[in-house]
Structure formats: C-alpha cells, structure tokens
Amino acid sequence: MRRAPIVITATVAGLVGVLAFHTTPARLSAGTLPGVSGTPAPTASGGSQRSQGTSGSGSPPPSSPTAHARPKGTAPAQPGGTRTVTGPAVNYNYGVLSVSVTVSGSKITKVGIASIDDGGMQRSQFIDEQAIPILEQEALQAQSANIQGVSGASYTSAGFQQSLQAALQTLGFK
Amino acid sequence: MGTVVTINVYTTDGKAGTDVSRQLAAAQAILQRADAVFSTWRPHSPVSRLRRGEITSAQAPAEVSEVLEQCAIARELSGGWFDPWAMPGGIDPTGYVKGWAARQALGAFRASGICGAIVNAAGDIASFGGLGPGQPFRIGIADPFAPDRLAEIVYLTGAIATSGTYERGSHLIDPHTGLATARAASASVTGPDLGLADALATAVAVAGAPGLDLVEALDGYEALIIALDGSRRWTRHFPFAPREAAPPR
Fold first, then answer.
1. pLDDT score recorded for residue A61
2. Cβ A50–B28 below 8 Å, yes or no?
3. Which domain holds residue A56?
4. What span, in angstroms and rounded, lies between the C-alpha atoms of A49 and A12?
5. Which residue, B241, B237, B199, is CA-closest to A148?
C-alpha cells in the first residue's frame, strides 16, 4: 500500500536536489533559486532569501546548465571543482532539516541531509528514511540520463538502502 | 508509509527568478488535505471511518464521493483488475488517490510564466507542458530488477504511473482471488489522468499481458510491461524516448 503522510519536496526551475519541507505556508517559499546564467556560485545560504533548500547550481558562467533541465543549456562539464553547499534549515512536516549538495563542475554528485531535528519522533525518522533516498536517487539519476523524474521509484526501506548504497558506491564512497 | 512528492517547476524565461511560493503553498495545502481525508493510516480520517462503517460516503467530505466515482470508472475500464472494493481490510481507494491528489496539486501551477510543471508522487507523475516549446519532459522508468538503474526513458505528455512487485513487497492484490499476485515485474501506463493511469498500471501489473489490450482500447493511454523474465511488451504508441537526449542547441 502506498500510504500517507505526504511530504512535499520541491525542486524548482530545473534544479534537482532541492528540498523544502514545510508546515506553515508562510515558510513555504522554495519557489526561487539563484539564477544560473551568469550568476556567481551561490553562497552557502543559497544567495537569496527566497531560496530554501539547496541549489546545486554554482557552475561558472556563461549559462552552464544546472543538473538536468536547462532548456537552452549548453553541454555540461564546465569544470568548476568539487564543492559542497548546505542549504538553510527549513521546516518540514515533522521538524527542521537542512540539505547539503555536493557539486562537481555542473554535476550534482551528492545530495544529503546536513542536519535534522525531528524532536525524536519515530514517525519522522521513518519518513526520513523513506524520503531521503528517493530524493538522492532522483537527483542523481536525473542528471545521468537528462531526465526530469523517475517513475516507479518507490521502494521498500530495504530497497532504499540498496539503492542508496549502490549510488554511493558508484560515487566511490563506501 | 511516507509518500514523497517532488515538484519541479519550469519557467518560460529560463530564469529561476519567478516566485512560485504561492503555487507551492497551494499545492501543499491540496496534498495535505488529501492526506487528511484519504489516509488509511490515520485512524480518524474520513476514509478510515468509512472503512470501519462508522460513516457512509454521503457523510464523508465531498471529494470522497468524487474519488469513489472515479474509482468505479477505473474499475470498469480496467476490466475489474483494479478494484478498491476488493481489498482486504475494506474499501481502499489509495491506488487512485495518490494520482488524483498529485493531479489536483499540479493545477496550482498553471500560471503565466510557467511553461511546465511536474508533480512526482513517489514515482507516479503528473505534468503539463515541458522544458519549453517543443521540448517534452523526459522521464525514466525504474528498472524493476535494479533499483538504481533505468529500464527505459519516455517522453511525458500528461501522466505516467508505474506499478510493480518490487514496490512495498507484494501489495498488488488480484481482485478476483483476493491474493497478492503479479504477472509482471512492472507495468507503466501513460495518459492524461494520473489517477486512472495509476489504476491501470496496477491492473496491468496484476493481469499481465492481457492487460495491454485493455489499455490499447483506451484513447490516450499507453502501457509498457516489463515481464518477470525481463522481456518487454507495449501498446502501439508507447512514447519511448531515446536513451540520450539530442544535444541542446
């Protein structure tokens, strides 16, 4: 059975790996992310007040594509070194979290949770375990095949673990 | 069980400066409302109470009747292979609701300045538009035998849903026997309505190859089966996309 509760994450304007979990609409403003074309790399806070979650953009100009979906993007592989950015802490349904994204050139190589405070709620922990690998998987797959999403990606926890491990191994992590 | 909803919004000017926070808030409210009403996991949700016979569908919020009506249509169109009334534990419209809710949420993004949006509810995807004019979205179908790989890529017009035995163990119930069954490793269905696509994907995964004929008969819907031996079968116009996108220009 696919069961609720539903957790919202948002990825906006062609960027992957952007999380925005929220409880109150007032805090929900993942709508914008730093523009890419000609924009300097975002700072750790995302560079914009309205940017929640984390942007993997930050490749050098001109118009280097972030991840997968720049309509008029140039070819990827802008060299830019590897760096990790951490987004601001955002509310989500069961607590507060922040996200980190590691980019190498214009490629997102890792999406993860930099910090999380769910008040020790078991349900929250369970949801996190389910949600985060999906997001990581989507973020990574989305770039490798120039796609905007994956259908059929809901796995059991065991599947999530497996998928995550595979992804990490691919990246040379243990 | 958690359901993760990912939302991608694509703006016409290619800039990320468009503020879509209002639309996101609206979408979130829609999803949370759907969760509150339809969750079979929350004991006091209207649908949980309906399952226990504490209320009738007439006493439930209006969208419950609407969804049940749609479920009845989906049951008919799927030749009875999708049947929320035949679930162990009582009526369970969950298989339709997720897609329905995602589609409702998608509506929040129809606004000027937005050329396309994707609402991805844990692998069941509703969308409109594309990356830009003449640039449809590309969506990967997870490989049922290797969760970290893609089996196929499709051009997305509207919705795609995928069901399979690899999801959450053997949750696919054969309505004719009441037993957990699957005759395909996974089944994907594309079409305009994600709720129906989801119901049909479940039906095809349970029915196997005969399910393809049902989908073939429906205008606007296409299906792909990945069989238990890894072989594939599909309806005539299933929207396969090439593995690699044409280089952007």
1. 29
2. no
3. 25-170
4. 15
5. B241
What is the greatest pairwise CA distance in chain A? 46
Range with top average pLDDT, A152-156, B13-17, B29-33:
B29-33
B95: domain CATH number is 3.10.520.10
- A11 located within any domain: no
Q: How far is CA B206 from CA A68, A155, B144, B179, in A?
A: 34, 18, 15, 10
B chain contacts of residue A3, beta-carbon cutoff 8 Å: 1-3, 39-41, 94
CB contact under 8 A, B248 and A162: no
Query: Is the pLDDT score of B38 beyond 80?
Result: yes
The mean pLDDT value for A155-173 works out to 38
Q: Is A7 among the domain residues?
A: no
Residue B177 lies in a domain: yes
For residue B239, is it within any domain?
A: no
Q: With an 8 Å Cβ cutoff, are B11 and A151 in contact? A: no
A113 at interface of B, judged by CB pairs closer than 8 A: no
Q: Tell me which residue range forms the domain holding B191.
A: 5-12+21-234
Determine, for residues A50 and B140 on separate chains, whether the beta-carbon distance falls below 8 Å: no
Residue A173 burial (CB count, 10 A):
10
> Are B123 and A150 within 8 A, CB to CB?
yes
Number of inter-chain CB pairs under 8 A, A vs B = 249
Average pLDDT over residues A46-72: 29
Given this model, what pLDDT does residue A104 score?
56
Question: A168 touching B, CB under 8 A?
Answer: no
